[in-house]
Amino acid sequence: MAINLVKGQRVEIGLSRLIVEMGWKVNPDADPPYDLDASTFLLRKNNEIGVEEDFVFYGSPNTKETPDGSRPMSKDGSVLGAVDDRGDDDDNTGIGEESIEVDLSKTDPLIDQILFTASIYWEKGSKSERYNFGQVRNAYILIKDAVSGEEICRYDLDEDFSTAKGVEFGRLYRRNGAWKFEAVGIPYTDGLEPIVRKYASRFM
């Protein structure tokens, strides 16, 4: 049975191959429609990415062709990012889901943590600028065993993020040679941009 985490709670991950699933529900009748995108940062001990390819998002420079389409991939090949819009609201329910594959056995020794975020896509000056996580329901992040499909742990983000357009959902991190997961839940008012400034400013 999966462990249900609360914000700040940590749990050891005794696996190498993981599926990190992030999901949410948006208003399917919103005009204009809006969507969330998952992004991943592979951070070194200085709390920043070391190479551009370790910011894994829908516009990543490093990609891999899969049966699902072109997917962003980290420099070391340990993180295979979500396909943009994969599974998002195909049935007009507003339910979105993005899956990220992680193979910790491939992770570069320089990587200290892997951070998972989601942000609302919006354009300044447009009607979509008004959207924030106050219009997002049932946001969660969960960790699965990539081999068996068994859910290991889950964090439901039930806080009020009504001013946020981007949120750090959770992170994997190394401690004494073992990997752990932490439920994070840190909001950002201006979406993905301040998260990139925090963890990848040298590449902006």
Write the layout of secondary structure elements.
Layout: E1 3-5, E2 10-13, E3 17-25, E4 36-43, E5 55-56, E6 63-66, E7 69-72, E8 79-80, E9 95-103, E10 113-120, E11 137-145, E12 151-156, E13 166-175, E14 178-188, H1 192-200
Parallel strand pairs: 1-12
Antiparallel strand pairs: 2-14, 3-9, 3-11, 4-5, 4-10, 6-7, 8-9, 10-13, 11-12, 13-14
C-alpha Rg, in Å? 16 Å
Sequence stretches where pLDDT stays below 50 over 5 or more residues: none
Tally of extended strands?
A: 14
CATH architecture: Sandwich
Highest-level CATH class: Mainly Beta
Distance between the termini: 42 Å
Strand portion: 35-45%
Strand order of the largest sheet: 1-12-11-3-9-8
